[in-house]
Write a structure and sequence with these properties.
Blueprint (H helix, E strand, L loop, with lengths): L1 H7 L5 H6 L1 H10 L1 H22 L5 H16 L7 E3 L2 E3 L10 H11 L7 E2 L4 E2 L4 H11 L3 E5 L2 H13 L3 E5 L5 E2 L3 E2 H8 L2 E5 L7 H7 L4 E7 L15 H10 L3 E5 L22 H6 L4 E5 L10 E5 L1 H9 L2 H4 L4 H15 L7 H6 L3 H15 L2 E10 L7 E9 L5 H9 L5 E6 L2 E5 L7 H14 L1
Parallel strand pairs: 1-16, 2-14, 6-9, 6-10, 10-11, 11-12
Antiparallel strand pairs: 3-4, 5-13, 7-8, 12-13, 14-15, 15-17, 16-17
Helix pairs in contact: 3-4, 3-5, 4-5, 6-15, 7-15, 8-9
This protein binds pyridoxal-5'-phosphate (PLP).
């Protein structure tokens, strides 16, 4: 015990530490209270190591641990990372990148007062939705539109406003979970609508929907099976038939379209078999309401779009939950600018669309250049759109494969700990750097970091 007491004496008292020269710049950078908290936490870790494991710490060891913790804490938590995974819409890495035009709009609106809810023509209070409603209607053919925080919010809001305490019929083949947190049965319960499941997992016929209709039914709901496909013997009724059935029974036909495709899939080289249909065609096939995400294949900021018939959209806009899910002005500015790029057909200005339709030959050349500098090999890879869009469609891409004696897992860890972390794939114990998702200047950043790591 005397021994441990002796070892603990190496650690100075807090006020002595706070007076030390090497701590001062950190107290300024982090603020005194936060700096103190971080040192305190480090002290308890060191004390535990001494008491439980009998480890010997010198004053220098103690100082190095504190400096390490302080340096880490001073870095922003949310930071730029390099996506070398080849997954374009990577939910863990922030989904879609915002178009440069949209970033300009965001910074302009963020730093100035704006007419967010002010109608400049009338000189009176206006609606925040007005800034994107017309653009959304002209891109989708809808009568009316609004946007909220995200698509999960859009579905929740639409169900609450239109189907609370009523029954909503959904095919068992479409009761999906997306990203581990969006489950239709849960959202349904939260909205106060009653879920009526119909059909089976692989086959649901029109008569299944028909048989499930009661006097309590308010809606037929179709959900895009974003991140999975049931293949083999499957049946689902045509949208037109579902719409007709709904309308013959005075019901609403709503579709959760998931990704929010605003242009024909062939513009971004998506084969028809990908099963992605545009928001416009959902409406043309008879949907009264369509909801979708802004930051998946649409390539904009995180929003949930709700488009469709004016009588329903008006009801949704007035529903109190809309206030809780409302979109903020910076996001709105970004979304408006993104929609303008769609209106003018500047698809390559939208990073998500540009990356999905990149030319394979151009990617091969990029991989060649990097491989040469890194002494790696160029390989062909399957990239993905990601974000629950077109799960079974892989995009042909190119990557640089690198082998290192320390093993891929070890190198990956070093790459994650960089100031600008690099996320990549692994195959057969090789690091795989996909080029599709690299942004301007990131090739050079990767080369510089890799050289440092590999030669260390
Ligand atoms: C992604 C997705 C959602 C959730 O959208 P968020 O914008 O992430 O809230 C809901 N439904 C479907 C079908 C989806 O693909």
């Amino acid at each position: 015990m005397a021994d441990i007491g002796q070892k603990l004496k190496v650690i100075p008292a807090m006020d002595v530490i706070l007076g030390a020269d090497w701590v001062q710049t950190w107290l300024e950078r982090l603020g005194r209270e936060r700096g103190k908290r971080i040192i305190n936490k480090e002290l308890s870790i060191i004390r535990a190591d001494i008491i439980e494991h009998g480890i010997d710490f010198s004053y220098d060891d103690f100082k190095a641990s504190c400096l390490n913790a302080l340096t880490f804490a001073a870095r922003p938590s949310l930071k730029h990372v390099i996506n070398a995974t080849g997954v374009v819409i990577h939910t863990n890495l922030g989904r879609s990148l915002i178009a440069p035009e949209a970033i300009k709009a965001m910074s302009d609106i963020a730093g100035h007062y704006s007419n967010l809810e002010y109608d400049l023509q009338a000189g009176a209070r206006g609606q925040r939705y007005s800034h994107v409603e017309e653009a959304l209607c002209s891109l989708t053919g809808a009568e009316a539109a609004l946007v909220v925080n995200n698509n999960a919010g859009a579905v929740l809001l639409a169900l609450s406003a239109l189907a609370k305490n009523r029954e909503v019929i959904v095919s068992r083949g479409e009761l999906v979970e997306i990203g581990g947190s969006f489950r239709i049965p849960d959202i349904m319960e939260l909205s106060g609508a009653h879920l009526i499941e119909t059909g089976t997992t692989n086959k649901t016929h029109l008569f299944d929907y028909e048989n499930a209709i009661t006097e309590r039914t308010s809606m037929l709901l179709k959900i895009h099976p974003s991140n999975f496909r049931i293949t083999g013997f499957t049946t689902a009724p045509e949208r037109r038939d579902l719409a007709k059935l709904a309308h013959d029974n005075n019901l609403i036909f709503m579709e959760d379209a998931g990704s929010g495709l605003l242009i024909d899939g062939d513009v971004i080289n998506l084969p028809a078999s990908a099963g992605e249909i545009t928001v416009r065609s959902c409406l043309e096939h008879g949907a009264d309401i369509v909801t979708f995400s802004g930051d998946k294949i649409l390539g904009g900021p995180q929003i949930g779009g709700i488009v469709g018939k004016k009588i329903y959209i008006d009801k949704i806009k007035k529903y109190p939950l809309a206030r809780a899910l409302r979109v903020d002005k910076v996001t709105l500015a970004s979304f408006e600018a993104t929609l303008r790029l769609y209106a003018t057909g500047n698809y390559d200005e939208i990073p998500t669309l540009r990356m999905i339709r990149r030319d394979p030959e151009e990617m091969r050349q990029q991989a060649e250049r990097m491989a040469q500098k890194l002494s790696g090999t160029v390989i062909e890879v399957d990239d993905a759109t990601g974000g629950g869009s077109c799960p079974e469609i892989s995009l042909r891409g190119f990557a640089v494969a690198l082998k290192h004696r320390l093993g891929a897992a070890h190198i990956q860890k070093l790459l994650r700990n960089l100031d600008i972390p690099i996320l990549c794939g692994v195959r057969d114990d090789e690091i795989i750097l996909h080029v599709r998702t690299l942004q301007d200047g990131e090739d050079d950043l990767i080369i510089a970091s890799m050289e440092k790591i590999l030669n260390a």
